[in-house]
Every structure is written in C-alpha cells, then in structure tokens.
Amino acid sequence: MSDHVLVRWTIVPRDCPRPVLACPTCGDARPFHPSGKIRLNANGKRLDAWLIYKCDDCDRTWNRPIFERRLATEVPPDELAALRTGDPAFVRRLAFDLPALRRKTSLIVQSDTVEIERVVVGGKTGATGAEIALAVPYPVGLRLDRLLASELDLARNRIAALAGAGRLTVIGGGNALNRPPRDGQIIRLDLVGVEDAPAIVAAAG
Ligand SMILES: [Zn+2]
After folding, report:
1. 31 Cα: distance to centroid of ligand 1 (angstroms)
2. How far is ligand 1, taken at its centre, from the CA of residue 18, in Å?
3. What spacing in Å lies between the alpha carbon of 104 and ligand 1's midpoint?
4. pTM of structure
5. Do residues 56 and 86 share a domain?
6. What confidence tens digit (pLDDT) does each residue in 60-105 have?
C-alpha cells in the first residue's frame, strides 16, 4: 500500500498563445490576440475559414487560416456547425492550438500564468510522499521547476536538490524540469525523513 497522496493537477494557461506580427497600422511588430470570432466564406462548393485576431494596440485584424478552399462535403458536420455558430468552446480550442499557430508564424508569446485545478484521488493522512499526475490539455509556456516551486511553495534550488537526491522524480520526463509540463507526466515525491515533508505533501494536495 502506497503511503503517497495521489493528486491530479489540471494545468491550463490563463491566456492563449499570441502571435507577434508586423502590424501595418502600428508600423512595427505587435502581439495579436484572438477576437473570439471566426470568418467562414463559401466559394461555390469550397469553404475558407479563419480565426480572427486583433492587434493589441490598434485592433487591426489578422486572419489565421483554419482551412482554405476545402470542399464543404469534406468538413465534418459538427465542425461545420461549430464554425457557423462560432461555438465558444471550439473557438477556444483553436486559439490554444499552438502547433497550428506555429505553422503560420514563428514568433509567439506564451503566457506563463496558469490556473491549476487540483483533485486528490487517493492516499491517506500522514503520507510521506505524493504522486502528482499532470493533465495539460493546452501547451503551457512555463518551466516545470518554476511551476513546482510556486505550487509547492519551495525555492527553485530546493526543487533541484530534491531531484538530485532522487526524492523528486518526473516519470515519463527524462530531464524535464527545465521544460514546460507535459500531459501525462507524473511527479513523484518520496520524502521519508525529510523535515518539512508534511508541509510539502499538504501543498501538493
Ligand atoms: Zn497595430
């Protein structure tokens, strides 16, 4: 029987990634943010769809192609309905789709502010360790060691020291502490004999 508290952290960036583009109105590079709107154009049997962004400073728009010249019959009906109605959940998923944005522009500002939903899924009081399963549905622009330091209320060099002593392990991670957290990673803390173990375990949950 494990003496670990088992928790799940769902990590969601507060803001979606923002492309930095040359804005003709401002005459300089500016971050753009999604307006929350989609444009859908029909051209015979073919459709174009864009996600509309706006310059942070002057509101000039940039249209990010979702697809172009696609046969309407090839678009799945639920996707077409979401495009037509501008379904907010669908728009949000597009706005957070970092790989798709990267295909259109290379300079991207990513938020390092995240919101974390914690759920304790098992374990017992008096545990000397914790297993934190990470759910990361959207890419996060924050290093894992910074995230753990702030969430566990420890200094970043303490995180490194715990990792170096084998008391903090990233399962499915390799040298993962200096990279952003990834979906499915598990942080295992083995803290038998560590003086402030109860405080760390409590912070994890
Ligand atoms: Zn502008």
Report:
1. 8
2. 14
3. 18
4. 0.76
5. yes
6. 999 999 999 999 999 999 999 999 999 999 999 999 998 899 998 9
Cα 17 to chain centroid distance, Å, stands at: 9
Q: What is the pLDDT of residues 32-63, one digit of tens each?
A: 999 999 999 999 999 999 999 999 999 999 99
> What separation in Å is there between the alpha carbon of 184 and the centre of ligand 1?
39
* Distance between CA atoms of residues 36 and 53, nearest Å: 8
How far is the C-alpha of 112 from the C-alpha of 162, rounded, in Å? 23
Ligand 1 centroid to residue 175 C-alpha, Å: 40
From ligand 1's centre to the CA of 93, what distance in Å? 25
Domain ranges, residue 123:
4-14+112-204
| Residues 6+ away with beta carbon under 8 Å from 192 | 128, 129
Q: Are residues 88 and 157 in the same domain?
A: no
